[in-house]
Write a structure and sequence with these properties.
Subunit structure: Homodecamer; pentamer of dimers.
Structural class: alpha/beta
Enzyme class: transferase
Bound molecules: 5,10-methenyl-6,7,8-trihydrofolic acid, 3-methyl-2-oxobutanoic acid, magnesium ion
CATH class of the largest domain: Alpha Beta
Shape: globular
Strand order of the largest sheet: 1-2-3-4-5-6-7-8
Distance between the termini: 51 Å
Radius of gyration: 21 Å
Largest sheet: 8 strands, parallel, barrel
Protein name: 3-methyl-2-oxobutanoate hydroxymethyltransferase
Strand content: 5-15%
Catalytic activity: (6R)-5,10-methylene-5,6,7,8-tetrahydrofolate + 3-methyl-2-oxobutanoate + H2O = 2-dehydropantoate + (6S)-5,6,7,8-tetrahydrofolate
CATH superfamily of the largest domain: Phosphoenolpyruvate-binding domains
GO cellular component, one term: cytoplasm
Number of helices: 11
CATH architecture of the largest domain: Alpha-Beta Barrel
């Protein structure tokens, strides 16, 4: 690792070049203040459509709009300067055709200043990935457990437990890599499959419920810091309990207000201290 301060963001070609090298560190971020705190510690910040669940309280990622992704992508961009910045294409903004996907991806690139976009899907999205990449938009793939397909999949169960599913997901990963994706997320698949995909494809794999053998790892920041408690996937490791700290701070404030301990002299205007 160089100790010289770099100018500009980590680029998508630099991420691609990390295949088989030092693990790529990724986290989601949805806001400028969080991005500021994560920027120097990660290689890549992902503005995930998980923001619909984490910030907006939706049951799943399907109600997330392109306008939401643009607003949060632009906020994360303003709060960071070093990390490669990838923004999720939300459900309904890209599945219909390569041309529709290009329009949505171009808005994300132009209106957020992100480094690239991410979309979910395998062989059925390969032509779309190629269409965007050939026209200058770096694309990160996302295979395995693809949350935008929760209704078709019937839930968030890990995938690849039977041989047909394993073959399908491997074919999906190969198709996305062949289409020109600079990297791909592998979510919620049995460990040996995530490892096998990582060995097979020439671009970096970023695991979430994948394998330590993946070329990088990603987690949802709010899961990591204990700020989301809707559900806790097996793949989450909690590194802090910020949610508990927020509740304790609110309780202490409430007690101070009720006891007239707050505001104190130092918080007041026009009172000698
Ligand atoms: N906060 C948050 N973190 C995420 O990782 C995340 C989101 N939101 N929203 C979009 C998707 C949904 N994801 C999920 C949600 C639930 C499980 C889960 O509870 N899995 C169970 C198994 C469920 C079953 O077997 O039926 C597990 O034990 O991991 C996994 C991934 C991942 N993504
Ligand atoms: C967890 C990552 C891969 C994601 O797609 C999201 O946060 O939406
Ligand atoms: Mg996502």
């Amino acid at each position: 690792m160089s100790t010289v301060r770099r100018i500009g963001r980590v680029s998508t070609p630099e991420i691609k070049a990390r295949k088989g090298g030092d693990p790529i560190v990724c986290l989601t971020a949805y806001t400028a203040p969080m991005a500021r705190r994560l920027d120097s510690h990660v290689d890549l910040l992902l503005v995930g459509d998980s923001l619909g669940v984490v910030l907006y309280g939706f049951d799943n990622t399907l109600p997330v709009t392109l306008e939401m992704m643009i607003a949060h992508g632009a906020a994360v961009r303003r709060g960071s300067e070093r990390a490669c910045l990838v923004v999720d294409l939300p459900f309904g903004s890209y599945q219909e055709s390569p041309a529709v996907a290009y329009r949505a991806a171009a808005r994300l690139m132009a209106e957020t200043g992100c480094s690239g976009v991410k979309l979910e899907g395998g062989r059925e999205m390969a032509a779309t990935v190629a269409f965007l990449v050939e026209r200058g938009i770096p694309v990160m793939g996302h295979v395995g457990l693809t949350p935008q397909s929760v209704n078709a999949l019937g839930g968030y169960r890990a995938r690849g437990r039977d041989p047909e599913q394993r073959q399908a997901i491997m074919a999906d990963a190969e198709a996305i890599a062949a289409a020109g994706a600079f990297s791909m997320v592998i979510e919620g698949v049995i460990e040996p499959l995530a490892r096998a995909i990582t060995e097979r494809v020439a671009v970096p794999t970023i695991g979430i419920g994948g394998s330590p053998a993946c070329d990088g790892q990603v987690l949802v920041i709010d899961d990591l810091i204990g700020m989301f408690d809707g559900f806790t996937p097996k793949f989450v490791k909690r590194y802090a309990e910020i949610g508990d700290q927020v509740a304790a701070a609110a309780a202490a404030y409430a007690a101070d207000v009720k006891a007239r301990r707050f505001p104190a002299k130092e918080h007041l205007y026009g009172v000698e201290s």
